[in-house]
Design brief:
CATH architecture: Sandwich
Structural class: mainly beta
Order of helices and strands: EEEEEEEEEEEEEEEEEEEE
Number of strands: 20
Strand content: over 45%
Number of helices: 0
Shape: globular
Length: about 240
């Protein structure tokens, strides 16, 4: 077993006024040679965007991009003609593939939009760009792992071009849960969205994370009511 701890207060931080961003992995002006990526997981940004503000049209290619809305709503436009709003409880996926332009703005003028944006290296290059979003029932993650993203192509559910599974669970204090890795040689990146848990004898609090590899399963003890994001990802970048 191999572990690496990502404490919330040690993340990169950039406050641009309209954008307050925390970077788990090296991003923009933040660089830590020990925390460039965890397997295929390249970016985990914890963003807070002021009302009416956002990112203008900008390009991506050959990256799988996942947006998890925590609070508020985000308006999305892209070069494929997609235009919509991602609301609370919704997940967005985008395969940049051969290349795509998109913009993201806080849909509300009077309150912040809070979200995680996740980038993963794809398992194949230069795929046809695609976009999808889905609203999930938050009640279906009570004391259980709710799978929110899976490998694809898939007939239903949100999927990406990578052998990775993303799940969220909301667990009551005193709960103990075990997650079994879905693919041999995958690792698990665990982030506490809120609350307090114990993993591998490490206490993790709000926005703390831990990456664990060379395992078949991971056991989690919940010390306080907690919401947890778990990413089951390949440890080698193709």
């Amino acid at each position: 077993m191999k572990t690496i701890l990502y404490k919330a207060e040690e993340r990169g931080h950039a406050n641009h006024g309209w954008l307050d961003a925390h970077h788990t992995f090296s991003f923009a002006n933040y660089y830590d040679q020990e925390k460039v990526h965890f397997g295929v997981l390249r970016v985990l940004n914890d963003d807070s965007i002021e009302g009416g503000m956002g990112f203008g049209m900008h390009p991506h290619d050959n990256m799988e991009i996942i947006t998890i809305m925590l609070e508020g709503s985000l308006e999305h436009k892209d070069s494929m003609g997609n235009h919509g709003v991602i609301g609370p409880g919704e997940i967005q996926v985008m395969s940049a593939g051969t290349g795509i332009y998109h913009s993201e703005f806080n849909h509300n003028k009077d309150k912040k939009a809070k979200l995680f944006q996740i980038w993963m290296f794809p398992k194949m290059q230069n795929v046809t760009p695609r976009y999808d979003q889905m609203k999930l029932e938050v009640s279906e993650r009570k004391n259980i792992w709710q799978q929110i993203v899976q490998p694809g192509p898939a007939e239903k559910g949100l999927w990406i071009h990578q052998n990775a599974w993303l799940s969220i669970g909301q667990f009551d204090s005193g709960t103990e849960t075990e997650y079994k890795i879905k693919r041999e040689r995958n690792g698990a990146y665990i982030m506490v969205i809120d609350g307090s848990i114990e993993v591998n004898q490490q206490t993790l609090n709000r926005r703390d994370g831990i990456g664990i590899s060379n395992i078949e399963s991971v056991k989690i003890k919940v010390n306080a009511d907690s919401e947890i994001l778990l990413m089951d990802v390949p440890m080698t970048v193709n």
